[in-house]
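To whoever is covering the structure queue this week,

Two jobs came back overnight. Logging them here so there's a record in the thread.

Job A:
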Amino acid sequence: METREQWLRLARAVLGGRDLPEFTTYDGIRIAPLYDSGDLPDRTPRLVRPVQRWDVRQRHAHPDPAVNREAILADLASGVTSIWLDRHESLDVQLAGVPLGRVPIAVPAAAGRALLDLAAAEGVALPGGDLGGDPHAPDIDLVRRCLAEQPAVRAVLVDATPYHDAGGADADELGCALAHAAAALRALTGAGVPIEDAFGQIAFRYAATDDQFLTIAKLRAARRLWARVAEACDISPSSAGSAGPVAQFQHAVTSSAMMTARDPWVNMLRTTVACFAAGAGGADAITVQPFDACLGLPDAFARRIARNTQSLLLEEAGVARVLDPAGGSPYVERLTEDLARTAWAWFQELEGGASAADRLAATRGRRDADIAHRRFPITGVSEFPNLAERLPVRPAGHGLAQAEDGHLPRVRFAEPYERLRAMADALPARPVVFLATIGPVAQHTARASFAANLFQAGGLATVTSGPGTDPEAIAEAYADSGTPVACLCSSDALYAEHAEAVATALRKAGAERIWLAGRGDFPGVDGTVNLASDALAVLRATFEDLGVRP
């Protein structure tokens, strides 16, 4: 059996002697190229969801209660097992015909009493759900009513998704969630609620992203952190584990920040990976956001795809049949441990008065830089954009699940590119960048494709001069394009021979800005575009050159 060093030596040989790449998460956690049993933490407690199906929890946000009711009944007849209501108005209308005794329901805080009243009127015990209560100012009467009438329902919700939606990383989200949960415990026990009852009254909501392993590790780390809080409160670890009154109930929602309005069908892939990760990570309930959620209120087809994503993972893949499927993996166990430690340290800083907004802004800034430089690629937006796409039209409304928090911004990773695309689309004719393709096809195709992809990410069309090296012929083709912006595309060898002459001819033909795809300093060239470029800065400069302004 090969040792770690033998594996690394073999891998380096494949890479021509180069070192294997390492990565660092936005939390500062190192991701190594290889893990083995030596990376397993000394202590790996198994805090997992019992073997059972997770709740397939569909969100409903239509402003018309009657429309919501019809959608809810259709979902329940087609595989959904749990309901998440975004609106509190006319709860009796929205839930008419819903078997309350069999369907866990999550509601906004304003609808908590109404839900309990409905259950009391029907004389049923609710099988679960949460009432969305503020962890910093919980409704103590409602908590006591849940404990007395509906012990399966949690009155308080710790919603960590606003920290994710503000650009936070996974440990940022976990630490902030823990701070809110600690505040809830203090408020509840301060009002006389027994500590184990207080634990059982708190539900947690987390974002699940298409970074599969980080999502799995986040949910596993969250349970470990909650068990650590239980231990600090003198509650035995056994009752803080995978079952019992103080187990952490986790509702995972596929990330709003990762969703795109452009090429929205790619969202199906993103949410499938996120759903798998949430299930493998042990979430108790999962909401898959419909692929068209950025465009407005999802239609019936999009909701069907969202719920069927979960049905396939449950019924075909059997993800919920395996107890902690990632458990024992050296990579996942190390990542879980590192996330838990980083989040606990951040939680302690928050308890000491640290500013969440400052930390989130710093994390957001690092990710924004990666998005701009396309180190954080967004398929269909910053990579492989489709300028000819026809977007589906949806009614206006709160399609994305985004919790209200007036102190934090909301971001979607694709927005900077999508804003440029919208500006270009709004013009009578799409702006054009001319690609001066120097030499034969084999010499210029790679860099012409790179440049076209970059400019199209901002909604700019590209035209090419075709193969050839004659500066005058290239300039003549440029003149026909009617654009002030050109980009040279070829190999390094042909740049050395032809770049200056072609740039001079383009300038004489009226080019105001001349880019070069690649690297190097050539007379007449204003700047370069390459893998290290700030693509958003290049696009904004090009928009200025083209006279396109907001």
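Job B:
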Amino acid sequence: MSDPRLKKLGEILLEDGVINQDQLEEALKLQQKSAVKKPLGETLIDLGYLSEESLALALSKKLGLRFLSLADGSLKIFYEHDLSKLVFRKFAEDNLVLPIEKTPEGLKIAMWDPLNFICIDNLKKMLRMNLILSVATKSDILDGLKLLYEKKIGGSPEHAEKRGHGATVTEEEVDKLKSDAADAPVVRIVNALIEKAVIDKVSDIHIDPGEEQVYLRYRVDGKLREMDPPDKSLIAGILSRIKILSKLDIAEKRLPQDGGFTMRINNRNIDFRVATVPTVYGEKVTIRILDKGNVKPTLELLGLEEYNLKKMKDCIFKPHGLIFVTGPTGSGKTTTLNCILNTIKSPEKNIMTIEDPVEYKIDGINQVQAESHIGLDFARGLKTFLRQDPDVMMVGEVRDLETAEICVRASLVGRLVLSTLHTNDSVSALVRLIDLGIEPFLIGATINMIIAQRLIRKLCPKCKVPASLTPETLRKFGLEGFHLYTHKGCPECGERGYAGRAAIYEMFTMDPVTREMVEKKADLGDIKRHVTSCGFKTLRDDGLEKVKKGITSLDEVLTITMEI
């Protein structure tokens, strides 16, 4: 007898006699015509050919899982296990997941859709424990969630007490938070701290809870500066106001949340990304400011030295191959990629990107926002792109083997593919790709260019002063004969001595010798020594050019860069 788990749901429903062939065909036709494709089971329920219980039983049979029901008492919730603290209520309701028991083997859960693998993976990551699945009807799941979180159906005061303090915010507490968020002083404070941050060209706002007070910090030119904080008595209202703006759940304080909003400041729309995380003293909020203004992302915006500009132009106009940009978070990788895309775009090219988030919107390019919670991750987006006849593809980041393999495969069949990696320098990206599982001969065959970059602070033009360096230092870094400057500080730059940032780059390209070394899995140190002997310019070399031009100081470059 064949394994029922290998059969399609429709076949099992036919075998069980709960539907007939005509009903199945009608449901399949309706599925194809529908703009929003529903699962077959739900389509049959909508047509009235199937009950929730029949579908749940069929799924349990197909997958070899237990079917649980409130009616026969098999669906029991073990309240003493503090299950309501484990799973965020909104997550449970959105995904129709009911925690029922915590055991040494893992967490037992009942699901309406046990084929929702994205939900299962997210839950595993969130809980860091094994999941033991069972199937229940949608109605029983919803009733069970009310039992667990509200105790409106059955339940008892004893169970409510066992839930513990802070498991779920009450309706009265939510109303209070909403009221606090709407108070005029709170609204003014939130607007003022955001507007000041935009005017001061802040990249991130940090609101950090402490035991006695709240800490407010702005990140300017890559460095955090402490600001005068709001009164701690207002912090609940301030956080609630930010959450409401960002469409986050103001009642959830135990789990991290991500959201965002747009605000019009100085006659332009500015995007804000918001992330919250619980700490021992309360919730920490970070606001990333994405103020692109009217600046168009072009190569001129990058401030490339002539030797790097020539290298880049030689590579980005090739019809196929891989281009990676590497560097830490906040080093400007996305800006560089979008400058490249804006430069190479033309009516003759079909360019498609999948990003998280889409920071620059560029006319003439098909840009897709990744939505991992619905299954639209980088890998799935790239697979879809390959059916859209692309010339150029860009993916926000290569972080796993599947995404890396799709990029390599696409470049081998005539596409130019751009992406980012997290490595310390350009040459180390070769090892990162091998670590992900890409064969060295494929790396040698597909890499056009690997760009590493950092952001360095620019000297304030109002107060920079000549630098006094020893002859030994000048000789060591090849700075003899140049007018060099260092920082001082003035009111214009907030006494920091620096104003604004510039990017420095190193650009690795594959020559025949390097390609052979990669294919033979040569030591990374040997590859670095070879490319250096061929005139390869490191991040430090590029930074020193900025020092010679008086753009930045030597100590800034030495702080940011390392020798290859």
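Note for Job B: The mean pLDDT is 84.

Please reply-all if you pick these up so we don't duplicate work.
Q.
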